[in-house]
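Might you be able to review the protein record set out just below?
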Amino acid sequence: MKKVAIFDIDGTIFRSSLLIELVEVLIDKNIFEAHVREEYSAEKIKWLDREGDYEAYIMAVVKVFMENIKGVPQTELIASATLVIERYRNRTYIFTEDLIKDLKKEGYFLLAISQSPKEILDLFCGELGFDKVYGRIYEVGADGNFTGAIVDEHMIRNKASIVKHAVEKENLTLDESIGVGDTEGDISFLEMVSKPICFNPNKKLYTHAQEKGWRVVVERKDVVYELGK
């Protein structure tokens, strides 16, 4: 049985959101109409001005993606995702990318769990050496176009369920397991691992980490440091 290391991706390895960058490219390529950018730009400005939060911003982007993906050929999405990776592959955090390299050498099974579309996750995580990737799967019709539906949405929303499924399917052990996340949405799987790491956590996760005595790591510019209790 292999030891497993579980990573959230956006904001944990990638220094942005794969979905946000993907939507921007889809708009630039006129696959999504230009005016849809206005539907999340207000939330983006509020977040940048500290008048709103990141969750509201990202959910506005998710809404735009879900409302506009229907009828888009999967090939167009993959081409756009490939462009995002070509542009931004190196926009990663030093701490987590170095950790991934070390864990690969130690023989860990690397598992990625994210709410971003699986097409772009497969490209990004594949280059990093992940063994298994779980992300949102948008249904593709017989014509090769997206239907607008999400496959097994209930499962991807619950990261703990995904971990249980992967551990059984891939013959993994949670002994000496490692988990890395950055928001409260990662708590469910961080509670399952032997060594949870809260990396650049938001306030809700940081508070929970303090209560649990979990490791908190912060990377700012070119400095990586740990926060005490």
Summary: The chain has a mean pLDDT of 94. The two ends are 34 Å apart (CA to CA). The chain is about 45% helix and 25% strand. The first strand starts at residue 2 and ends at 7.
